[in-house]
Each structure stands twice: as structure tokens, then as C-alpha cells.
Amino acid sequence: MQRRLVLPMIAVVLTVWLVGTWVTKFTLEEMALYTPIAIVALGALAGVILLWVKIVRDSLRRRS
């Protein structure tokens, strides 16, 4: 594993865990169980957003 990515990934997971606890009604312990699901869901959302950005960009490129 690349060492440069470990610290940012730890920061992302901790942020999702703490923000998820703050936004939802879950306690820190409950959110610790749901954090992996939240990480997967956020990754899927990012993938869909990137896919649509690529589709729109390619569509605009073909028009001009």
C-alpha cells in the first residue's frame, strides 16, 4: 500500500464517521458499524457523478 494515501484515507474515514454521527441520530459506536457502508455509498455516488460529468463533457465536445 502506498504510504502517501494512508493518512488521507484515515482522515476521510474519520470525517465520515464523525460527520455521520453529527448528522444522524446514531451514537459513535453505532456509526462505527455503519461507516463502511457510508464509505461504499459515497464512493458509488462519486462514481456516478464522475460518469455523468464525462457524458456531459463528451456530449458538449461532439457538438462543437
Structural write-up:
It is a single chain. This protein has 64 residues and is mainly α. It is built from two helices and no strands. The longest helix is centred in the last third of the chain and has 36 residues, at 28-63. The protein is elongated. It starts with a helix and ends with a helix. The mean pLDDT is 94.
Helix content percent band: over 70%
Binned strand content = under 5%
Secondary structure class reads mainly alpha
Low-confidence stretches: none
What's the N-to-C terminus distance? 42 Å
Envelope shape: elongated
Number-wise, the strands total 0
Number of helices: 2
Mean pLDDT: 94
Question: In summary, what is this structure?
Answer:
The chain is an all-alpha fold and 64 residues long. The chain is built from 2 helices and no strands.
Name some characteristics of this structure.
64 residues, 89% helix, elongated, mainly alpha
List the helices and strands and how they pair.
Elements: H1 3-23, H2 28-63
Helix pairs in contact: 1-2
